[in-house]
Specification:
Strand order of the largest sheet: 13-14-20-16-17
Oligomer: single chain
Radius of gyration: 28 Å
Shape: globular
Helix content: 40-55%
Distance between the termini: 38 Å
Structural class: alpha+beta
Largest sheet: 5 strands, antiparallel
Number of domains: 3
Length: 745
């Protein structure tokens, strides 16, 4: 074995794990020490507020089924990406925020690298190749971008572990099957649907290849993979069933998604020159034109070079298949800029539910480190490997030159040309340094130097990625997430309270905030928080009429569109929704009080049965008054009810339960301006009652004359059914493990 081969054995799992942890600490020391915290984009406006809400529910002994603070009420657990049932969420539920959520994300960054290390080591039988793949998977532009979404970084981190475990299950069976099921379930519960879809699509392809090649007995291979799929679905049922139920009753009908945020036609250049064709106007973070889902997908010049060399020179059968899948995922990522994906988008219904074609780079960035590992594994079999890498290296150099030429001669509006050229030149420097390292790795001279070459290559590859563009994950003082900061600073009067009143950022303020992000991320977040943008209101326990969620109940969607239609007259609708504060017309974080708003719970209105189209029209009329009239959706038992004298005596409004004492002179309805959803159930005097959909998207309960106690309770039967299925499946997995253990003995 040459010195390179001996050096490769140095990268044991323990040593690589320590090295990866050291590099993460070196890049995020202030975050791991708790001095600063992530803040940019969805981390501050979605991830952290929802983690804080989940934590509040946890310490009150509740599962977070329902969020009453956003969208006039919206399912929370069923969103899937809220991590409500993901076991490692205990990290930020038990440990102090905000440090624990940042630690949660960085821990999964380490987990991602370790998973890729073990997968690449299995496929290449080479520790050095595995270490490079693990580093390239943890440190690339896309994975670093995913840190702003705890659910996405967690799901992506489990991807190599799932492939490793499930492949072992169909090859060896036995106790590998329940292990694969548990690993797959952890990824499922993490809640990144696109990554999960791509993971199991890749596994299906690998399984078919394995079956056709007959590498193991075909019959066991045939049934083991479907069994793992069934076990994962069963173990995940408590999360999957509520999600599928919400998805089927949400605004996302078939065809809801479009080809928005495809990879730009110039996007190929960003694999080589990360800051080409874009700018850093938004919070100082670089984004391409017409695509802002990810701030980068730069794989690192070494990983890209090695991946090309793998296809070019070291043509392993598995590597060829992975290369084909990588090319297909790249074509799909271009979305509307090629004819391929638009055609499939129209002919394959499931693709129409996947938003943003750019997300196909998830699969591409998973495959590139593996292809790179095949190249490094081939180094030990070639005395002069510089020949193997010469052609792909020249191609990369030429493509970087072409990208720089296009940036200089054909820039797009808003391009920062000097920054892009400097960035491209620095990539050329890294390319040349890495070329020298490749040259030295292929020779057996100077043994002492050879022993350090693999480690030096990893460090240079890491430096390439961490310097490839301006900071992707800006940080700020943890104080920006202090609880009730807005209430203390603004002292809103009247004060919005759950079950009593709400605030409403106006359409103009929402639009202005979306298009005027400041260059300082901390200031940008504080401005957004003061204006209750996205889900920041959760940090201050301020109810509001909108929110930032992937899925909302189908009936609420048209009302929300009406509220945020600037040409519509919605003042009377705002009264019905209890809007006590709206943002000022000329300032997105100053509030103006409203005095004519209704209580969120009322009774005595005249009830009229009418279809949604007519009701939406009626609610924009000047004479609409939610105190006097309520429109019931056509349903069995829904009838017109005359107005009656009535009053609400007492209310108690919780996350999953509303208690109301009402008194009416005649049969009447109790109207609750909370989003109607099928898992809310009504009880009058502790007897089941009908809950009607009122004013298109809200709740109404008929009551007889006299004093009555009305209770609304959120009871998710899909969750209960899913939990029962998960427990039974867990018992099956335990029985399989015991059986396999006894059989082995």
């Amino acid at each position: 074995m040459n010195e390179t081969g001996r050096a490769s054995n140095w990268f044991t799992p323990l040593r690589f794990g320590a090295l990866l942890a050291l590099l993460i600490v070196a890049f995020f020391p202030q975050v791991l020490l708790g001095w600063q915290t992530f803040v940019v984009r969805d981390y501050g406006f979605f991830s952290y507020p929802n983690a804080a809400f989940q934590r509040d529910c946890f310490w009150h002994g509740e599962l977070p089924f329902w969020n009453p603070y956003n969208e006039c009420g919206v399912p929370f657990l069923a969103q899937w990406n809220t991590l409500a049932l993901y076991p490692p969420s205990l990290i930020y539920l038990l440990l102090p925020l905000p440090w624990s959520l940042s630690f949660f994300c960085l821990l999964h960054l380490w987990l991602a690298g370790m998973g890729m290390y073990f997968l690449a080591r299995r496929w290449t039988d080479n520790n050095f190749a595995a270490a490079f793949a693990g580093l390239a998977f943890s440190f690339n532009g896309l994975t670093l971008n995913l840190l702003m979404w705890p659910s996405h970084i967690a799901t992506f981190a489990w991807m190599p572990w799932v492939v490793l475990a499930v492949e072992s299950a169909w090859q060896f069976g036995g106790k590998k099957i329940p292990i694969a099921a548990l690993v797959g379930t952890l990824q499922m519960l993490a809640g990144g649907p696109e990554t999960i879809f791509l993971t199991w699509t890749l596994l299906a392809i690998l399984w078919i290849r394995h079956f056709l090649r007959g590498d193991t007995l075909r019959l066991p291979t045939l049934w083991r993979f479907p069994l793992v799929v069934l076990l994962v679905a069963g173990l995940s049922a408590a999360q999957l069933l509520p999600f599928l139920d919400l998805a089927s009753h949400s605004q996302r009908d078939a065809g809801y998604a479009d080809l928005h945020w495809s990879m730009p036609a110039t996007g190929w250049a960003n694999f080589l020159v990360p800051t080409a064709f874009g700018n850093t106007v938004n919070m100082g973070v670089f984004f391409q034109h017409d695509q802002t889902w990810t701030s980068s997908y730069y794989p690192g010049i070494a990983a890209l070079w090695l991946a090309l060399a793998s296809v070019w020179q070291f043509q392993k059968p598995r590597a060829r298949l992975l290369a084909i899948i990588a090319v297909v995922s790249l074509i799909f990522a271009f979305g509307e800029h090629t004819p391929v994906y638009p055609f499939l988008y129209k002919t394959v219904p499931i693709l129409s539910r996947m938003t943003y074609p750019i997300k196909y780079v998830l699969l591409l960035l998973f495959l590139l480190p593996l292809l790179a590992a095949f190249s490094l594994a081939g180094i030990q079999k070639h005395e002069r490997i510089e020949k193997c890498f010469l052609r792909p290296g020249i191609v990369l150099l030429a493509l970087i030159g072409l990208a720089l030429f296009l940036v200089g001669r054909h820039p797009l509006p808003g391009d920062d040309i000097p920054a892009a050229i400097a960035n491209g030149c620095s990539r050329i420097v890294f390319l040349l340094v890495i070329a020298a390292l490749f040259f030295l790795l292929g020779r057996n001279r100077q043994p002492a130097l050879q022993r350090w070459m693999p480690l030096l290559l990893l460090v240079i590859a890491w430096l390439d990625v961490v310097t490839h563009e301006p900071v992707q994950n800006p940080v700020a003082s943890p104080g920006i997430y202090a609880s009730d900061l807005v209430r203390k600073k603004l002292a809103l009067d009247p004060s919005p309270e759950a079950g009593i009143s709400r605030v409403m950022p106006t359409p103009a303020s929402v639009d202005r905030f979306a298009h005027t992000a400041t260059s300082i991320p901390e200031n940008n977040f504080l401005v957004g928080r003061l204006g209750c943008q996205a889900d920041c209101n959760l940090l201050d326990h301020i109810p509001k009429v909108d929110g930032f969620y992937s899925l909302v109940p189908h009936d609420w969607a048209p009302v929300r569109m009406l509220l945020y239609n600037e040409s519509a007259n919605v003042s009377q609708l705002e009264d019905f929704l209890g809007v006590c504060q709206v943002t000022a017309t000329n300032d997105i974080y100053q509030w103006q009080s409203r005095s004519n708003y209704s209580p969120l719970i009322t009774t005595g209105q005249k009830a009229i049965v009418a279809d949604d189209t007519a009701v939406l029209q009626a609610m924009t009329q000047p004479d609409f008054d939610g105190r006097k009239v309520v429109y019931l959706a056509p349903a069995p038992g829904a009838t017109n009810v005359p107005a009656a004298r009535g009053r609400i005596v007492k209310t108690d409004f919780g996350n999953h339960r509303v208690e109301i004492d009402a008194d009416a002179s005649e049969p009447s309805v109790v109207v609750v301006a909370q989003t109607y959803y099928r898992h809310w159930q009504a009880f009058v005097d502790d007897r089941p009652a009908t809950l009607f959909r009122a004013n298109v998207a809200f709740q109404a309960v008929p009551i007889p004359a006299g004093p009555h106690h009305v209770r609304l309770q959120y009871i998710d039967r899909t969750f209960r059914a899913g939990l029962a299925v998960a427990l039974v499946t867990l018992l099956v997995c335990a029985a399989m493990t015991v059986f396999c253990h006894r059989k082995k003995d």
